[in-house]
Amino acid sequence: MIFFLVGRPEGQEQPADKRLREKIIELKKANAAKLKAGAVEEQFITADSPIPFDIKQLWYDFDREVNSTYDHNSNHTPENECLVEEGDSKMLKPAKFQPYSPNNTAPYRSKNQIMYPYVGKIYSRLNDSRYSFMFNPPDYYDVDSPNDIDHLYKNWIDHEERLTILDLSGVPFELIDISVGLISRLIYESMYWGRFEEYTGRNRPILMAYEEAHSYLPKSERSSHIYGYARKAVEKIFKEGRKFGVGAMVVTQRPSEISATILAQVGTFIALRLTNSGDKGTVQSAAPNNMNSMIELLPSLRIGEAIIVGEAINIPSRVRIALVEPRPSSNDPDLVGSWLKSFKTEKNENAYKGLVKALRERKHQN
Questions:
Q1: Three-state SS for 85?
Q2: Which one of 71, 73, 263, 336 has the largest count of C-beta atoms within 10 Å of its C-beta?
Q3: CA 4 to chain centroid
């Protein structure tokens, strides 16, 4: 949360981070007895406990702490605040105070400025509509919302279908790493703590499939928006998940860019056509020494052909995978047919208006 909210790099903790952690624990403890999935004893709560709290209230309290003024210089208590307007945390409206005097006379400025660098950064994140799905989830916002985390688990796992797809395509790029990491941790920890339950854990094993894995499970955090949160969570599943009934599969076009820890734990490779020498070398290093001739075929494989190597198949084989019907929308466009068409959008005054509306609303138009 600190990485995302205020952009503080790992290993550079500041006093404000400790204060932020303490405030989060305080707000979580205030909700401990109100949880719909069951009350939690306060002594077990940490900053990492999955308990909802009002992050807008957190910002409001810090803003008030930093910007308040007082009519006594030594007694900075709520009773001595020079308050003009209370404000509203839900609307991200800060409390207003009388301006402090620069001449060491009343009103006096707050002496507690430790959170000053963070107040503006937190407000900027909370006020950005791109992140509203994270900070304003309609059914999971706080303890007064209709659902708790158990409702998420039931939606993801406890239904009649064999497959659950979590579509993260609308998630901003800078939140993909955190989102994938949080989902992975929630699933892994649910399987760990429920490993002996009849309805989950070892009695109901699941497989996590990570599509486009090179985008958020890289060898190193070269991007400013990749903190390694997803990579660490998925590595833990690859290393320890089997014991608790959770497995993992990575799907990627660039296996050479995937975390080495993850690749070292992979039991089976299903390799479709690969032309990059680095990617081919990654698959080749996982195959038996006498399979080099088969691996050399990777650049020449047809659509739907694959080479399977590993524990899932007795003999490394070249196979043909049946194509899915109806075909997904990821098919290549008909280049020649499209280029031969005549487009005359100048006759349609509304051309591109629907596109711009979809772009601004971040959703597809019907």
A1: strand
A2: 263
A3: 10
Which among 253, 297, 311 has a CA at the least distance from the CA of 278?
253
One-character DSSP codes across 232-263: HHHHHHHHHGGGGTEEEEE--S-GGGB-HHHH
Q: Determine contact, residues 67/108, Cβ cutoff 8 Å.
A: no
What digits encode the pLDDT tens for the residues 93-148?
999 999 988 888 888 898 889 999 899 999 999 998 888 888 888 777 666 778 88
Domain 148-266, CATH: 3.40.50.300
List the one residue out of 263, 269, 275, 265 whose CA is nearest residue 291: 269
Taken in order 322, 326, 328, 333, the sign of the CA dihedral is positive
Residue 214 sits at the vertex; the CA angle it makes with 213 and 217, to the nearest 5 degrees, is 75
For the chain, the structural domain boundaries read 1-147, 148-266
Radius of gyration of the chain measured on its C-alpha atoms: 27
Tens digit of each residue's pLDDT (9 = 90 or more) over 284-336: 776 666 677 778 888 889 888 998 888 888 888 889 988 888 877 766 788 89
Q: Could you tell me the sign of the dihedral formed by the alpha carbons of 221, 48, 239, 298, in that order?
A: negative
Classify strands 69-70 and 108-109 as parallel, antiparallel or unpaired. Answer: antiparallel
Strand pairing partners for 319? 306
* Contact call for residues 47 and 77 (beta carbons, < 8 A): no
Residue-wise DSSP of 289-326: GGGHHHHTTGGGPPTTEEEEEETT-SS-EEEEPPPPSS
For the entire predicted model, the pTM comes to 0.81
